[in-house]
Protein 1
Amino acid sequence: MGYLTVFGINFISSNPALTFQSNVSMCFMLKSQKKIAATAVILVAVLLLSAFAVGQLLEPVDVDTYTAQAEKVFNHAKTMLEQIRNVTLPSNIHLYVITQQDAVDRWGKPSADANLAYIQRQENVYKTLFIINETDSLYQATVDWTANWGATTLGNDIYVIRENFDPFNMPNAEATFVHELTHVWQPNLPYTLTFDAEKAHTALIEGDASFMGDVFVDQYEATASPSLSVGNVPVFLIDNPALNALHPMPDTIWQLNFFPYDHGKIFVNALHDYGGWATVNDAYWDPPNTTSQILHPDKYLANETAQKVSSPTLAENNWNTITTSRNQKTDSFGEYFIQVMLDRWLEQNETLRASEGWVGDNVTYYERGSDYLFTWNIKWDSNCDASDFYVTFHNMANAAGATDYGSCNWSANGRYLSIAWDQSQNTTIISGSNIQAATQESYFGWS
């Protein structure tokens, strides 16, 4: 049975002063801002990608015994990380045991409240693009997920959540600490300006930490260190009903949040295969800036970066551009976001083919009173790639059950969506709004 860590994304944007996180993890590591990081760790049974109430599955153990075991495994993990990575960790790293309620009180609802406006805007985008259902609540997900963290890192302080983390489950428990301690060691990364770049940076950070956890597990299984465990080890009851007692969460959000861990680990593994730890370490000084580079490590090694894309011009100037909390007027969603959007409704081979020609995009969000409008201009490598996405997007909207009212326009749940294809620029331009007229081609001077 392996272990898995899950990163929590900031929806429309991330403000270092607010530190809103949307899911199981707070390991969003803008280390340039005092290396504030927190990682959520979920123990996984038989590849079941779900967090669950571990406390309901474990045999009771008193706090002192629990803490002693956690500290024992933690201290050994420090030695193992230093040996594997040939680094020296700071001497002032501390381990704390907290409860689910402690986590919610510290990082759950207050963070969600501070970012309520951004959550609502991202809901508008996600629901218009059929990424989530109309009844889904991203705000509730922010609060609910905090209680499912297993371990978090804040600076040099590492916290484990008692109900969710099992220090007796070896080698997973120590692999978790190796993962967390990697975050303490990792160099600073520059501040990111887009959703896509943040995902890419976090994929390096979390991918490296997850890869380190795997390296430790391989060494542990080769050497078998029984002294780190004790008798009467709690077991995971795979068929326990608690596994299915989760608050519902859209699969698309899971996929976006897992990206830095699963795809990030594959990316770091590719760098390690290419040039060993030296290549992995060098990536911190020249980090990937697109999810496309994470999905295709050869693009990173060839220094293929995103192309600059502009926002389309609106027919009316009474819309207010909403800046992200990165203080940017526009954003970029990236190749992986497109994959997840399409994959919810279509076959994976179709979605991969339709997204891999991505070379850049621009997302701009506007408001006018209670109305919203967003434009998403996506640049493609060729006209063939643009055509492929254009057709696939049509297939997605139709598969989602939207009302097709002609000329590449759809509606659902009081939201309107359109797509246009600029063959001269190899771009496709998507617009979404709660105002039908604002998504018409004539509104942008396209016809």
Note: Residues 320-444 form one domain.
Protein 2
Amino acid sequence: MKPAKRLRVFVGEDERYRGRPLFEAIVLAAREHGLIGATVFKGFLGYGPHADVSAADILLLAENLPVAVDIVDEKEKIESFLPFLLRAVNSGLVICSDVDSEQIIPERDRE
């Protein structure tokens, strides 16, 4: 395992950046920035500091459910991506933590 940084960004699904959903803009910017990968998780229950509890329920179609974007990469690459996040995220939470990681590539995909 190698030392790495995990970047987790919590936003509402209705948040936007330059006309597109913020979570999508973060993933696309991470790819352009050369980060190894990004994953978006949509919550079915959550709240933020300025919001009511939002829930996805069969009988209730909630608006602005919580979304988390996870990115893990080398410390330097994560740190160089932070200025974009500080520009793009108007309301949310950005967490950066130390992790150990190992990218596992299927044998058929190895060169």
Note: The first helix runs from residue 22 to 32.
Protein 3
Amino acid sequence: MSFEVPDDLHYRESHEWIDPESGRVGITDFAQDELGDVVFVELPGEGDALEAGGELGVIESIKAVSDLYAPVSGEVTAVNEALFDAPELVNEDPFGEGWMVEVEFADAASDDLLSADEYAEQIE
């Protein structure tokens, strides 16, 4: 099976992505497929500080409960509140309507983030 891996994003090995332009963060197409139907998402609040590699939140599906990890350190500037009422958006559109938070980050990108090619290799 082939998964969508947009070239303009950076990825964590734990399947989160970040858009380096907007600071928008979510989980990958591969991750949402592995989880199955997402039924609940717990996210930080606006103004919360995140630590790269630290906990970002929790995602619950019919199969499992998984921790989400922050791809970068920074401050949460927006939260996708639509996910609280419609967590299935993560399954339907993981790189669009299913985004989770936006982060204002100091460093352009963390060294432990993967390029699209590196991430695609990891999930093959």
Note: The CA atoms of residues 30 and 123 lie 8 Å apart.
